[in-house]
């Protein structure tokens, strides 16, 4: 699941509005909108603040390129905690 899909799914699943999520995560509404629109350059610390609301985090991990030169990486789940 892509980051954008994960955030939208979790927010809607829990019935949160964008402003609710921004308040809970301690970030601005504009940042949430940028995340959900798939902005390519976001501050990792703020992304993790948002993900922490849903017990998830984004972290560096090893990746590899397949034959078509696209990146393959899958989210891993640790107990009740998501980590990319």
Features:
about 80 residues; 4 helices; 434 Repressor (Amino-terminal Domain); alpha+beta; single chain
Question: How would you characterize this protein structure?
Answer:
The strands form two sheets. Strands 1-5-4 form a three-stranded mixed sheet. A two-stranded antiparallel sheet has the order 2-3. The radius of gyration is 13 Å and the shape is globular. α2 crosses α3 and α2 (18-25) packs across α4 (44-53). The chain has one domain: 434 Repressor (Amino-terminal Domain). The chain is built from four helices and five strands. By secondary structure, it is α+β, with helices and mostly antiparallel strands. Helices cover 44% and strands 14% of the residues.
Annotate the secondary structure layout.
Layout: H1 3-13, H2 18-25, H3 29-36, H4 44-53, E1 56-57, E2 64-65, E3 71-72, E4 76-78, E5 81-83
Parallel strand pairs: 1-5
Antiparallel strand pairs: 2-3, 4-5
């Amino acid at each position: 699941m892509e980051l954008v899909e994960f955030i939208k799914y979790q927010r809607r699943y829990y019935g949160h509005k964008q402003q609710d999520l921004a308040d809970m995560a301690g970030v601005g509404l504009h940042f949430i909108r940028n995340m959900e629109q798939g902005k390519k350059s976001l501050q990792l610390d703020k992304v993790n603040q948002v993900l922490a609301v849903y017990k998830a985090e984004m972290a560096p991990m090893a990746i590899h390129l397949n034959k078509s030169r696209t990146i393959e990486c899958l989210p891993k789940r640790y107990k009740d905690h998501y980590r990319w």
